[in-house]
Amino acid sequence: MSTQVNRSWQMTGFGLSRLERVEDKVPEPGPRELLVRTKAVSLNYKDKMIIDGTLIPDLVFPFVPTSDALGEVVAVGKEVSRFRVGQRVLGQVIADWPDGDAPPVLHKHTLGSSLSGMLSDHVVLGEDAAVLAPPSLSDVEAATLPIAALTAWFALVEATKPVPGQTLLIQGTGGVSLFALQFANAFGLRPIVTSSSDEKLERARQLGAWQVINYRTQPAWDKAARDLTEGIGVNHVLEMVGGDNARRSLHALAADGRLSIIGILGDTELSFSILPFMRNRITVQGLSVGHRRAFERMNQAIEALALKPVIDKVFGFDEVPQALKHLEKGPFGKIVITMT
Amino acid sequence: MSTQVNRSWQMTGFGLSRLERVEDKVPEPGPRELLVRTKAVSLNYKDKMIIDGTLIPDLVFPFVPTSDALGEVVAVGKEVSRFRVGQRVLGQVIADWPDGDAPPVLHKHTLGSSLSGMLSDHVVLGEDAAVLAPPSLSDVEAATLPIAALTAWFALVEATKPVPGQTLLIQGTGGVSLFALQFANAFGLRPIVTSSSDEKLERARQLGAWQVINYRTQPAWDKAARDLTEGIGVNHVLEMVGGDNARRSLHALAADGRLSIIGILGDTELSFSILPFMRNRITVQGLSVGHRRAFERMNQAIEALALKPVIDKVFGFDEVPQALKHLEKGPFGKIVITMT
Amino acid sequence: MSTQVNRSWQMTGFGLSRLERVEDKVPEPGPRELLVRTKAVSLNYKDKMIIDGTLIPDLVFPFVPTSDALGEVVAVGKEVSRFRVGQRVLGQVIADWPDGDAPPVLHKHTLGSSLSGMLSDHVVLGEDAAVLAPPSLSDVEAATLPIAALTAWFALVEATKPVPGQTLLIQGTGGVSLFALQFANAFGLRPIVTSSSDEKLERARQLGAWQVINYRTQPAWDKAARDLTEGIGVNHVLEMVGGDNARRSLHALAADGRLSIIGILGDTELSFSILPFMRNRITVQGLSVGHRRAFERMNQAIEALALKPVIDKVFGFDEVPQALKHLEKGPFGKIVITMT
Amino acid sequence: MSTQVNRSWQMTGFGLSRLERVEDKVPEPGPRELLVRTKAVSLNYKDKMIIDGTLIPDLVFPFVPTSDALGEVVAVGKEVSRFRVGQRVLGQVIADWPDGDAPPVLHKHTLGSSLSGMLSDHVVLGEDAAVLAPPSLSDVEAATLPIAALTAWFALVEATKPVPGQTLLIQGTGGVSLFALQFANAFGLRPIVTSSSDEKLERARQLGAWQVINYRTQPAWDKAARDLTEGIGVNHVLEMVGGDNARRSLHALAADGRLSIIGILGDTELSFSILPFMRNRITVQGLSVGHRRAFERMNQAIEALALKPVIDKVFGFDEVPQALKHLEKGPFGKIVITMT
Question: Do residue B268 and residue D271 have CB atoms under 8 angstroms apart?
Fold first, then answer.
């Protein structure tokens, strides 16, 4: 195996111009590790922020970015008992979080952040940090799950209990948002989707949005959301932006409502008025992906519900820079790179 | 209003022969009560057991049986604030259970049991013991909800958290079972339905059963259920029968599995072996209908999920004895009596 | 009974000067109501804010303020089944919240706010809006429970699950804070108390504070709290102030930490940085008293744990203005008015 | 290190006569393993059942029994990050259960059962299967925790939520029972202890039992428990015996009560009547020790609450057969073997 060539995209510094294709040896798995041949890698907005240098300023180079990949197990360490050669696996992004509460020091073992990422032909994963891919999904589809789908799933299903008929406001139509839309539909929630594009909103409707709001034409979208819910407010909002947007999210909430902060695309500050917050018993919770057991439960659910991830565009391994540029355009769903 | 005639079916003793049609005055609602004009009444197996004298041996006569009815509010007491005339309502069967834990002494305020039942043109309900009917359901459909649907909902959604992809074994194809089947489907559970009739199993399949087992041709249905789940066992079983059947249910369970005891059609004893029970961390829970808040949540879910109750047969007000006889035949879904 | 005189303190406008003693007839209880002879009334800071006109600007006069009182049932309506004459009861402040989620429109039925308050010899309570007082407490002690104790209890025990050994930061030494300190101790939590007074901190220590911080001499008390927890941060903070103080509270939190907002003595805005909030999976929850079932559970706990409320000072019925002035001084524990 | 001698007690067949002292080489830890020098080992009743051959009939010999030991880390594998040499550790009995749900195939990795046990001078533990011992406990005290304390903790605190003032019936005065008694006291539960010995009941009282029942003089102890709770019944029963005893436990339960099955000393069958079970919404749950996170939380609680395990008797390493015989006498608390 060691005679094979292992292609990677490596950061040698910040900026797209410092992302370079390299070739080296295929790594060897340790006793409890898996050697995985990567088939497809999906991108998240945070990958762009890491490459740009805005998210992890003290990154050590060279560094292989990205966290989400589907691969096939091609070799296993001698003590491995959870997997065998030939299985299709996905990496568990927060590698040392099996279940329950997160590990005490979180970012010690995170794929594509404190650990090396997935933009390589071969990667090594701990056997405790991988899950089986859902059999019904293609390689490209399965590659989209580790961050985007698990974040949506964790916010909707693990951190709370979805109650059919309740309303859920979903911001935008990126990867996490469309997974949230699909899960919400499956659970009988009433999803309200916001976007600045009527065309995207129309596609969201076709995917099952109960209501849509164009926040460009309706900048007071919190008011619009209240109107859509007969003045009661929305039961749950998935916050993707921060700043003033998050403040509006709080205004849009019903009594006993919940704001799950799962992304920051804008201002990193949030300010709000405490009195209605207290009177209405509002909960705000920060979330960041999820644990391995939740990932397994989600994959089981994806099979049972026959869900298919929404893919915006697929790029070849040579087109990684183009794929990253495409990410800035606000895709509708996920961007995936195939390794072939 | 008091000049109107109020028709009822009243028990003057045990047995179908002592169930008699009577006419009296329309009752007056108290300050916090609703006068409800009944439109449709659904039957439950326990109504038959009450009429036969097997469930409540010390019942005081005369007694109007049944618990489940859809009606229209025709008058309200002067302090009523939760409802207004013209609304379609359903009675909350355990009348003094608004939310959370049940009231200390349960059967003090139960419709059709410690309280008078619903087989009358007019009934009086406390305003705290009623909920709005789902607008999308007809009168006949809505009348089926108070016991059968709420029991299934409470066991699947309130007492535990449905995890899509998990398996659920449902016994039979009566009212509760078919509601459980519909809810299970909506939540992405994998329902396995048992019956002694291939024809009913075929209909269950059409309603979304993932697998079916004919317990007549496969008396070791617990073994059959294990085989269908690759030897793992079923995650949740809804027990409707008791006795040896319940013992089989426990054998069919996976580790961390749950047995919800929601009905007794057979032997009232249950015996099982403790060692595997302990090793596999099994939970057995007895359940009995549910609280008003759960009823409200369920109705909201029925709207959002566009569920339609399965009606076996509708009878006229004069056909109550025939309807009760039909109940013994093992209907597929609910039996309803219309008041007109 | 109607020949008796019923003394009250009534607001005829905002400001202490418009709080007047009046006498009228003893009220009659309705069919499901209790007539309660008040023995002791405790004050909360919000009573001062209501009297000053800062909390409910559109209050309708005349209005009897305050919410917390211990009284004896002296008559019951003819349909009352939950209480009998002679029992010592406390009013459930959010009167229509029996259990589970709060009622849809919260402030419709709140004692001393949307409903008339307790500063009268006699008050009328719905039988669903009262609980038995703990037998081991005196009238004065029991009168302190309805808001202060229940708010602390709900934040520590009902909205979350206390884990012995975890740290809890409690702000100040007012009524809610000292109940929180006593409950925290009982559950094996490690309470850290903040105050501007070394003398009060010493008394807090004697009541069981694990650590204390004087925020006057240590304005960076969030840093001090981190230091006391070996850099890990505090697991739970009870926020009483708002504004910059709440921001510091968030800084003091450990990963997976919780901020319960249960009071506002200062700035009503809260602003914080989202990124660490998300990474550390922080939860912020607004809370406002609690439901009747929680009140019953708390009273049972107070008995079992043999807790005694901390009383700062007791005033006579004629001294209500003095008692309200004393409230501004930052008492150590509760202020109570006896009706005799 | 490999020149050192490693003493063990090994089973070469079933029966006490086949338990033999042997000496071999000190084992080497793998890359993610700890070499632990054992200081104290505690016994559980199931150790006796394993040695007698009644619990695991297909055990492979030679086999080192027992599961609970306190030891010091004397060497670590090169990839170990959670522990360092010199720390005092306890083994996590169900080794591959870090948190949340149990692993799919439970008994694959259980200390002293599917894995080799602890009756050796040195043992090797995976770094994921160990926790730090509470600093305030001596070696002998800490050795008692892994099964007895964690079983009691899990049943009282993890699988449910202790509500102060609720009643808990504890059967007997063995290791698990006395831990349950101490935890119950700490949480404000009202523990009722049963035993056949008035002398042991008197000691249980001194440890904080609220009430005691001698089941020899009061064979209808379920009735006695009901009487002690004003006819309401007990909220939670910890079942240690099985068979008829478990049936009595169910009779002793209040509505919404819980029976945690955590031990089997007698008949392994349980039978009960379903109707009251269903009406009263009873829960029966089988439990078997607990996960590592619960172990860590418990140790933190033991520190915060300053709890001290009750030790019945300490034996020397040469006295293992005597210690096992003593186990049959029904000790009051734990039996421990010191390795020196």
Answer: no
pLDDT per residue over D296-313, tens digit each?
999 999 999 999 999 999
Give chain C as a 3 state SS string.
Answer: CCCCEEEEEEECCCCHHHEEEEEEECCCCCCCEEEEEEEEEECCHHHHHHHHCCCCCCCCCCECCCCEEEEEEEEECCCCCCCCCCCEEEECCECCCCCCCCCCCHHHCECCCCCCCCCECEEEEEHHHEEECCCCCCHHHHCCHHHHHHHHHHHHHHCCCCCCCCEEEEECCCHHHHHHHHHHHHCCCEEEEEECCHHHHHHHHHCCCCEEEECCCCCCHHHHHHHHCCCCCEEEEEECCCHHHHHHHHHHEEEEEEEEECCCCCCCEEEEEHHHHHHCCCEEEECCCCCHHHHHHHHHHHHHHCCCCCEEEEECHHHHHHHHHHHCCCCCCEEEEECC
> Is C49 in the same domain as C85?
yes
Q: Residue D330 sits in a domain of what CATH number? A: 3.90.180.10
Q: CA-nearest residue of chain D to C300?
A: D165
| Whether pLDDT at B202 is above 60 | yes
Q: Retrieve residue D88's tokens.
A: 């005092």
What are the pLDDT digits (tens) for C199-240?
A: 999 999 999 999 999 999 999 999 999 999 999 999 999 999
Of C155, C217, C215, which Cα lies nearest the Cα of C189? C155
ipTM of model: 0.91
Mutant choice from C32, C96, C99 vs B, greatest count of B C-beta within 10 A:
C99
A-proximal residues of C, 148-167, CB under 8 Å: none
Residue B264 confidence (pLDDT) above 90: no
Residue C322 in contact with partner chain A when CB distance is under 8 A = no
Task: Give CA torsion, residues D121, D125, D130, D135, to 10 deg.
Answer: 30
Partner residue facing A288 (CB), from C261, C262, C281: C281
Tell me the chain C residues in contact with residue B100 when contact means C-beta distances shorter than 8 Å: 98-100, 291, 293
Q: What is the span of the domain harbouring residue B23?
A: 5-144+290-338
Contact A100 D293 (CB under 8 A): yes
Q: Chains B and D: how many Cβ contacts under 8 Å?
A: 103
Write out chain A residues lying below 8 Å of B165, CB-based.
297, 300-301, 303-305
Of C190, C297, C305, the CB nearest to D304: C190
Q: Do C288 and A272 touch (CB under 8 A)?
A: no
- Chains with 3 or more CB pairs under 8 A to chain A: B, C, D
DSSP A29: P
Name the residue among D30, D31, D100 with its Cβ closest to that of A99: D100
B-contacting residues of C 20-39, CB under 8 Å?
30-32
Residues B107 and B164 in one domain: no
pLDDT digits (tens, 9 = 90+) for C61-73: 999 999 999 999 9
D256 touches chain B (CB under 8 A): yes
* Antiparallel, parallel or unpaired: β D234-239 and D190-195: unpaired
Residues of B with CB below 8 A from D237's CB?
none
- D171 and D256 inside one domain: yes
Q: Which of D94, D84, D79, D101 is nearest to D36 (CA)?
A: D84
Q: Kindly state whether residue D151 falls inside one of the protein's structural domains.
A: no
- Is D149 domain-assigned? no
Total domain count, chain B: 2
- Give domain status of residue B152, yes or no: no
Say whether both B276 and B299 belong to one domain.
Answer: no
